[in-house]
Amino acid sequence: MAKINIKSEKITPFGGIYYASKAFYALSLDKVINGTHGVRSSTYNGYQWDEIMSAMSDVFLYGGDCVEDVNRSECHLRESPEIRIPTSHAIGHPIKELSHEDMENKSSSGIVFRFNTNPRLNDLLMKHNMKMGLFKSGQTVWRGFRPCFRQD
Fold first, then answer.
1. How large is the C-alpha radius of gyration of the chain?
2. Is the Cβ–Cβ distance between 138 and 152 less than 8 Å?
3. Helices assigned H by DSSP within the chain
4. pLDDT, tens digit, 9 for 90 and up, residues 70-103
5. Nearest CA-CA partner of 34 in 18, 56, 51, 59
6. Are 55 and 70 spatial neighbours (Cβ–Cβ below 8 Å)?
7. What pLDDT is stored for residue 92 in this prediction?
8. Those residues with Cβ within 8 angstroms of residue 111's Cβ, 6 or more apart along the chain or in another chain
9. C-alpha 124 chain-centroid distance
10. Which residue in 21, 38, 109, 113 is a FRET match for 75, CA 20 to 30 A apart?
11. At residue 9, does pLDDT exceed 80?
12. Residue 32, SS3?
């Protein structure tokens, strides 16, 4: 027979996101983000990089398709006292600051390939992976048969 627990707390469709948010802060990923990208605002009203990136990842973790979906879920996500939820407008403008120009490479057959390496976000990704213990300092990361990144 299954046991049933009755909770007096309000149930929201995005309740699982609170656990992801707690893990985000328990792993100190907020400190890694703010340490990498710096302070955005010295006032409480302004959002820091960790709040923006946490909100943006939350959107996609609960099945959103675009940043504007944070507006639909905002009333439910505000149930958590620990989470500050920026609006889609407050997420979009800072994300544009992280953009990086595409690089072009023309093959010998004349085909132009465009790609974007975005060093700031790649640096952040590697620091997150190292913080979570997925990569170690000095470890070579392999892609296919060629080493593509070495973090010293």
1. 19
2. yes
3. 16-26, 29-37, 49-61, 69-77, 88-97, 119-131
4. 887 776 666 666 677 888 888 888 888 888 898 8
5. 51
6. yes
7. 87
8. none
9. 10
10. 38
11. no
12. helix
pLDDT value of residue 90: 86
pLDDT digits (tens, 9 = 90+) for 12-65: 666 677 778 888 888 899 999 999 998 887 766 688 899 888 888 888 887 888
With CA atoms as reference, report the closest residue to 85 among 62, 53, 61: 53
- Token pair for residue 77? 């996500």
The strand pairing partners of 133, in sequence order, are none
Contact 131/28 with Cβ under 8 angstroms?
yes
Element at 136 (helix H, strand E): none
Burial of 54 (0-12, 13-18, 19+ CB in 10 A): buried
**Token reading at 128:** 């997150």
Contact 94, 51 (CB under 8 A): no
Q: How many CB atoms lie within 10 A of CB 130?
A: 15
How is residue 132 written in tokens? 């979570």
Amino acid in the structure at residue 21: S
In Å, what is the CA distance from 47 to each residue of 55, 102, 124?
Answer: 11, 27, 18
